[in-house]
What does this fold into?
Amino acid sequence: MQTNYQQIIDDITSELETLDNPGRVASYIPELAGVDANKLGVHLMTVGGNRYSWGNSEEKFSIQSVSKVLSLTFALQVMGENLWTRVGVEPSGTAFNSLVQLEYEQGFPRNPLINAGAIVVCDALITQLANPKKDILNFVREISGHKKIDYCPRVFESEKRTGFKNYSLANLCKGFGNLNNDVDTVLDVYFHLCSIEMTCSELAQTFLFLANEGKCPVTEKQVVSSQRARRINSIMQMCGFYDEAGEFAFRVGLPGKSGVGGGIAAVHPGKYSIAVWSPKLNEKGNSYQGIKVLEAVTTRTQSSIF
Ligand code: GLN
It folds into this structure.
C-alpha cells in the first residue's frame, strides 16, 4: 500500500501546534538570534521523485552544520580514503564545539561532523583545491541541482566575529600539527560553509543521493559510489547529533544531520530524504520540534531503518 506521506505530515504538524515548543533559538551567532522562532517547514522527497511539503518549506534558512555532510562528501571525492588519516569515524559523545576531547586525543577529531572535524576537513580541501570557497559552492550547487544556492555574507560575518570556540578548536588542531594552512584561512572557509542557505525542499533534494545508493534521481548524477553513500550514512547515524546521536537513533531511527539554524536532514536509504526546519533548539543544540516531527514521521510510517 502507498504511504500517504502528505496526510501524515499534515496530521503531525497540526498536532504539534497544540504542544509547547520549549527550545531556544541559537544566539551565540548574533545573526541567527533574529530568526523568527515560530517557523516550521517540512519537505519529504521519495527516491521516485514524489514531493510532500508543509509550512515554511520554501523559505531559506542557515543550514549550518548540516553542511558538514557536504564538505565530508566533497573531501572524500577529492582525496579519497586518505581523509581518514586526519579525522576519525567515532561518535564523540560530547557537544559539537567541545574542546576537552580534542586535547586528550591530540588534535585528531573524533569525526567529520563535529566542529573540529569539519575544520580539519576544510583544511584538507584548502590544500587540494585552487579556489576552495568557489569549488565547495559549485559542488553543493551541482549535487543539489540548484544553481542559486549561496553563502550568506551576514551569517558569515556574524560568525567570524563571534566564533571564539571555533578559533580555539582550530588553534588546538594547529598546535598538534593537524592543520596545514593558517587558522584564519581555514576558518574563512569553515564559516562560509556554515553560512550556506537552503530551503527544506532544496535540502531534501540535496540529500536524496544518500537515500539512493549515491545517485541523485533528479539530476541523475552519481555523486558517490553506493558503498561510499552507505559509509556516509553510517557516520551520520553515529555522529550526526553529537551527544544526542543515541537518542536520535532511538527515537527517529534514521541517519541524519542537524545544524544550529534549526535544520535537520535525514534519509531512509531506498525510500526518501526529509528536511525539517524549526529554529528553536534543545540543550544539545538540535532542533526541538525538528526531532519531534521526524520521530512522528518514522513512527507513523513505520520507517525507522532498524
Ligand atoms: N557554525 C556553527 C558553529 O561552528 C555550526 C554548529 C552547528 O550547527 N552545530 O558553531
